[in-house]
Amino acid sequence: MLLSFTIMSPATSPISSIADFDGDGVPDDSDEFPLDPYEWKDSDGDGSGDASDAFPHDPDETVDSDGDGIGDFADFMDEGNGGVRITLLGYEFEGYLSSYNRIMHPPDAIFEIIVDIDCDGDFDKRYRSEVFVSIEFTEAFFQADCDLEDDAAAVRFTIIAYDVWDVDNNDVTEAQIMDYMPLDGVRADEQTVSLPCNCIWCNTGEGDTDTPDCTLEYMISTVAL
User: Fold this and answer.
1) pTM of the entire structure?
2) How far is CA 138 from the centre of its chain?
């Protein structure tokens, strides 16, 4: 009697506990990626193997493009340190020509950008412009860059516009808030925006009892700092 035997490689064995189709050393019945020699386990079940998953235990994250430790899903700026840029685009003092007092004393403007970086109700950063000796600006004239945590979900800010009456050695000694909101008792706008963002507003204070009035155009956008 003649007997013959065929010795099969584990990679082609019909027994799953032995077979290792991709040759990565992990048997097919234990390999979550039996056709990928570089992957065999997906700890968080997100479909991305642990070897290529930057967050193998977080089912909501797989990639960290800028290597800052925050996954791209939560990171509003995937390509570097994130922040926002708040830009004042245009300003005009309203009622200038109709006021004899303002004709004799042209309005000088100064602006403050105040930011609540974590939306906890407290304003954390304040940026003040120089004094602008003019009644109108028709292009970007003041901006502030504010650094944020890269996993921030939103930011809150307000802009205060002042009509400066007196300056002593470059210090403002007398000023009053200008109104750019058409609501009684509300002179300045407050915005809370989700990140990333690219928003623009233009408001005018005419139409209520608050004075002096101005028109203010401004925007906010996310930037890499």
Assistant:
1) 0.77
2) 26
Q: Are residues 54 and 88 in the same domain?
A: no
Q: What is the pLDDT of residue 86?
A: 98
How far apart are the C-alpha atoms of 57 and 59, rounded to whole Å?
6
In terms of domains, do 134 and 187 share one? yes
Task: Say yes or no to pLDDT of 12 above 80.
Answer: no
Q: Is residue 69 part of a domain?
A: no
CB–CB of 141/190 below 8 Å? no
What's the Rg (C-alpha) of the chain? 31
Task: Name the token pair of 200.
Answer: 């623009």
| 148 located within any domain | yes
Question: Reduced to 3 states, what is the DSSP secondary structure of residue 75?
Answer: coil
- What pLDDT was estimated at residue 99? 58
CATH number assigned to the domain comprising residue 107? 2.60.40.150
Count of Cβ atoms closer than 10 Å to residue 8 Cβ = 12
Amino acid at 106: P
Is the pLDDT higher at 170 or at 159?
A: 159
Range of the domain at 3: 1-62
**How many domains is the chain built from?**
2
Each residue's pLDDT tens digit, 21-76: 878 888 888 888 888 889 888 888 888 888 888 888 988 887 887 888 888 778 88
